[in-house]
Design a protein that fits this description.
single chain, Fumarase C, Chain B, domain 1, Fumarase C, Chain A, domain 2, 3 domains, 17 helices, 5% strand, elongated
């Protein structure tokens, strides 16, 4: 009976995706272990390390459909080894004594770690594909809203005018950096291992290096001459990259969550027809998907910490660290991919309420243009004196409920110093966006050039 949301059957894929759930499916994982055993036997058979007939029989029978899974299940009730019940059953179904050559010279961790690399490569391929799709969506959104004015906020308060396109460009530059990080770390998730019990490869015999290299070649992997039984920095780095990635997704989701608040109402995640957000309040339209992204990111960060912590192995192998990593990695990968899929759904249907952005920009009227006025005045009476004076007048305007512009123009000290042109931006704050359009346009162009050099598949 499913007990974890990843495995739920009635309410499926709330915190997973069908694609990633399949990558880490129990039977899929066992078949990968069998695939590694088959590749080892094939390599050894081709080299004459084991009889050719035995290698062929092992290759043929290393399929779940040939195994008695009930007996495998019974074996796990008594075994404390992660692999033994599976390979014991594989031995038993191989005919003519060929089972004696199953797992010949390898150790359990060789098989499980090599299979984990195959899982991680599938995961990285999926994440890379979806991350590039998100990048494309964001680039299009930034281009469409390059000049859409809105209020920028610092410390949770309105600060200065900006454009929504610039906000999205900031998001997409982070996405691009994650793509580059993923390309870098993907090159390190390419090597399986056949180090034997303690990394000396002693049981694999005099041609151990060739056996290992040929086995990995069959699996489409590189061979690491140095066993990484207790060197987990590559998996730790991948977990860290995923942690950074989902934190960017959480930042974007939180921004949408904040800007969807009723009082702000500038953005809204899509809500398909018939969506019910509340069991008692029919009017509610809750940003549920953005909230899920944020929750998933929290779990990924904690799981990444667990995986990095498990790098601190003792001696040549430490099961405490290994099991910690093996337990955390599937969840981390599934949660990362799920958060990314949710973000694709949100961004592809994001509602941008342009009129509301402009309305909020005018909420404080002339006050949001105070920086413009500061630097017009600074050249005439000095920066600090101008800052103090405008701060005084802005407080006066707020407290008295009068126009900031009127407060400035009526001030005997500076009212006559400023020209009509100086005051123009106070009436049209949407014009005070600095170099936002240039930043948006040049950033889009730069990222599109990088996209042109990307491969469609990260492992091509």
């Amino acid at each position: 009976m499913p007990a974890h949301p990843i495995d739920f059957e009635i309410n499926q894929h709330l915190f997973s995706t069908p694609e990633l759930a399949q990558v880490f499916d129990e039977k899929t994982r066992y078949q990968r272990w069998l695939d590694v055993e088959a590749a080892l036997a094939k390599a050894q058979g081709e080299m004459g390390v084991i009889p050719h007939e035995a290698a062929k029989e092992i290759e043929r029978k290393a399929r779940l459909e040939y195994l008695n899974l009930e007996k495998v299940h019974e074996g796990y009730l008594h075994s404390r080894n992660s692999l033994v019940p599976l390979i014991s059953n594989l031995r038993s179904v191989c005919e003519k004594g060929c089972g004696e050559y199953v797992h010949y010279g390898a150790t359990t961790q060789d098989i499980i770690d090599t299979a984990e690399i195959l899982e991680l490569q599938e995961t990285v391929t999926i994440i890379y594909r979806d991350l590039r799709t998100l990048e494309m969506i964001c680039l299009d959104l930034a281009a469409r809203h390059r000049s859409t004015p809105m209020a920028a906020r610092t410390h949770g308060q309105q600060a200065l005018p900006t454009t929504f396109g610039l906000k999205v460009v900031i998001w997409v530059t982070e996405v691009r950096r994650h793509i580059e990080r993923l390309k870098c770390v993907s090159e390190k998730i390419t090597a399986g291992q056949l180090g034997g019990a303690v990394g000396t490869m002693a049981a694999l015999g005099p041609r151990a290096m060739e056996v290992a290299a040929r086995t990995m070649n069959i699996l489409g992997l590189k061979h690491s001459r140095v066993a990484w039984h207790n060197s987990r920095d590559n998996t730790g780095e991948l977990a860290s990259v995923f942690s950074l990635l989902v934190t960017t997704l959480a930042k974007i989701a939180n921004e949408i969550f904040q800007l969807q608040k009723t009082e702000i109402n500038e953005l809204a995640e899509p809500a398909p027809g018939g969506t019910v957000a509340s069991s008692t309040m029919p009017h509610k339209r809750n940003p549920v998907i953005c909230q899920r992204i944020i929750v998933l990111s929290m779990h990924v960060r904690h799981l990444a910490g667990t995986i990095v912590e498990s790098m601190a192995h003792e001696h040549e192998r430490d099961a405490r660290c290994l099991w910690s990593e093996w337990l955390a990695m599937p969840q981390l990968c599934i949660y990362t991919g799920t958060a990314l899929r949710y973000m694709l759904d949100v961004m592809s249907g994001l509602e941008v309420r342009v009129d509301r952005m402009l309305e909020n920009l005018y909420l404080h009227k002339a006050l949001i243009g105070s920086e413009w006025l500061l630097f017009r005045l600074s050249g005439r009476i000095g920066k600090m004196k101008s800052l103090e004076k405008l701060h005084e007048l802005s407080n006066k305007a707020r407290d008295a409920g009068i126009s900031f512009k009127d407060a400035v123009m009526d001030d005997p000290e500076i009212g006559s110093v400023l020209t009509r042109e100086d005051m123009a931006y106070l009436d049209h704050p949407e014009k005070y966006i600095g170099h936002a359009l240039q930043i948006v346009d040049e950033t889009i162009e730069e990222i599109e050039k990088k996209r042109d050099s990307d491969s469609e598949n990260i492992y091509e």
